[in-house]
Amino acid sequence: xxxxxxxxxxxxxxxxxxxxxxxxxxxxxxxxxxxxxxxxxxxxxxxxxxxxxxxxxxxxxxxxxxxxxxxxxxxxxxxxxxxxxxxxxxxxxxxxxxxxxxxxxxxxxxxxxxxxxxxxxxxxxxxxxxxxxxxxxxxxxxxxxxxxxxxxxxxxxxxxxxxxxxxxxxxxxxxxxxxxxxxxxxxxxxxxxxxxxxxxxxxxxxxxxxxxxxxxxxxxxxxxxxxxxxxxxxxxxxxxxxxxxxxxxxxxxxxxxxxxxxxxxxxxxxxxxxxxxxxxxxxxxxxxxxxxxxxxxxxxxxxxxxxxxxxxxxxxxxxxxxxxxxxxxxxxxxxxxxxxxxxxxxxxxxxxxxxx
Length: 356
Fold this sequence. Notes:
The protein is mostly beta strands.
């Protein structure tokens, strides 16, 4: 080899390029096939083929990105799970919020707004989404007023400075006194003396006709409870042999998570469910809700009350639970969130509960 230094191939017969021709004849079809396959893979990547096509300059999502930022026209998701296909605890449903203001004068509309406000010159509170009066704190030192909020005086008596006074003086007051709107009224040395009884529980004894402040009744609490003590020496029921009573919520809880169905279940108004072989209990009443079937998740959950929920085990005086006032009106359960109008649920009478 000499000259310009260019390499020249010689065949076995001494002919230049013979070996190169044989090489090309044998390997050319293989090279063409590989090229075609590579071109197909590069040019035909699309969603139908399991890979996503991106425009120039667009970077593919990181691992785990579900493309939630794509708009609906691009076939993406708005980040919310369709309730029609949500069937596991991991799915979170966001159905459209519909304001609930039918038959409501005030209070929340369950969608972050309000159904109206009450005229402060006429009403003093919103109870059960209705404008009305509640016994204000001044009534704790009164037994009457011109509006009748704190009570009215009996015949022959007049309301003077929010206290009932006999029109004809102490001659009209029985020797043993009498009860007026939860207060004990008697006369001493021709002076009217008013005693404000705890929880306005004043009684006149049958034996001696003496008015006295009585011990308030114990109010049992079995609302939404299946078992455990009722707070007054009784009980709300018992559980089966394979469950125990969670006294705090009054719910029956199985001894093993294997006995809890995948949908969970309601024990009173507490939700019982399992997760990772552990049993959990959620008291729905503490959040102003009830335990019931949830179509969205196909399981038992804490859900809002409906207009047709009958009072059933709710006592006539209602129930205060975590500043939610449950009361019966028209044979159905109503719920007032006392905290929504800066008050609390409290017992204000012998058998009277209210937001105040």
